[in-house]
Amino acid sequence: xxxxxxxxxxxxxxxxxxxxxxxxxxxxxxxxxxxxxxxxxxxxxxxxxxxxxxxxxxxxxxxxxxxxxxxxxxxxxxxxxxxxxxxxxxxxxxxxxxxxxxxxxxxxxxxxxxxxxxxxxxxxxxxxxxxxxxxxxxxxxxxxxxxxxxxxxxxxxxxxxxxxxxxxxxxxxxxxxxxxxxxxxxxxxxxxxxxxxxxxxxxxxxxxxxxxxxxxxxxxxxxxxxxxxxxxxxxxxxxxxxxxxxxxxxxxxxxxxxxxxxxxxxxxxxxxxxxxxxxxxxxxxxxxxxxxxxxxxxxxxxxxxxxxxxxxxxxxxxxxxxxxxxxxxxxxxxxxxxxxxxxxxxxxxxxxxxxxxxxxxxxxxxxxxxxxxxxxxxxxxxxxx
Length: 385
Ligand SMILES: Cc1cc2nc3c(=O)[nH]c(=O)nc-3n(C[C@H](O)[C@H](O)[C@H](O)COP(=O)(O)OP(=O)(O)OC[C@H]3O[C@@H](n4cnc5c(N)ncnc54)[C@H](O)[C@@H]3O)c2cc1C
Known about the structure:
- By secondary structure, this protein is of the alpha+beta class.
- The protein is 47% helix and 14% strand.
- It binds flavin-adenine dinucleotide.
- Flavin-adenine dinucleotide is lined by residues 120-123, 128-129, 153-155, 204, 208, 210, 359, 362-366, 368-369, 372, 384-385.
């Protein structure tokens, strides 16, 4: 793949950093179910995790399309940015909706790597995709919220100092509209871990440091509320568009990893006296995945450009995520099949990436929910849920 993708210098620099973290590094972490702390530290030191933090607060002040280039290259190299991408996608809500005082208080520390903002608590066991049904409740007493409830699949909570947390502040039955009554908090976890806050790891199909988090009268100062009380759902939705574009970039990176590996292996593996890649049955799925990847990339670029121009491109962000997740899955499937039995051998890294890229059909939003969004909000069909 030699096509100009933009941000060439960023891509080269990230690729050089990733070269210090080869497949063997990720395999070891995967085997031990361990957090890739060294990789995250290197990325932080180089300033890449602060890409979206405005310069005034110590970050690089880059746009979403540059952040996409960073994540894409990490995935293309065989690594996994899911270990630390929350620091970027929480910025969608924080940079746009956080107060100046909050930004001054937290962002320089986050940019310098002294404060880790790696956790995003939305999903709950009983609400699932229906975010507006979440129950974790923040009771306000004076200047403090007391949060009680449970989140699930809160990735990296054990490796984060701060969490962007969506809670209910008005009981659902008292909310005028479905999206009302939810509030966004920038919660400091440090003092509460092990006390009003407990974090339990979930063993999962992939190495993702994902957890369940239990809140028992966990205190958050009202000063750490992002935006207005009751407006949290709308704020999180605008941040989620940025998240979807960033995730789409990870998918494109995965797809490129798979396609490069599959094309190389198909050209060199000789069976029946000729390279397997000489057979159209082997070539075509790889070529098709490439076509899907390029199409997804175009949508991703459009979504990022609109976001960087100050827009909130729900349609493009959702489509980019849908198409890119499908492309990476098609590429993973083609790559695994091309490698035959060797695709299952851990040392090739393909089975690991295959497990990792499968997640994007489900999280951070499942394919069906994107299709529902497109049907209802883009095509004007009746709401289905
Ligand atoms: C590894 C991992 C990491 C995660 N990290 C985070 C995190 O850091 N923070 C966080 O908040 N969440 C996180 N999540 C949660 C993730 O966002 C959810 O799993 C996802 O949104 C789907 O919700 P659910 O699992 O409850 O599935 P459900 O909502 O129970 O849905 C199950 C299935 O039913 C389908 N479905 C549901 N309703 C409809 C409908 N109306 N029409 C058609 N189909 C429907 C869905 O598409 C899905 O396939 C993570 C999940 C995983 C697995």
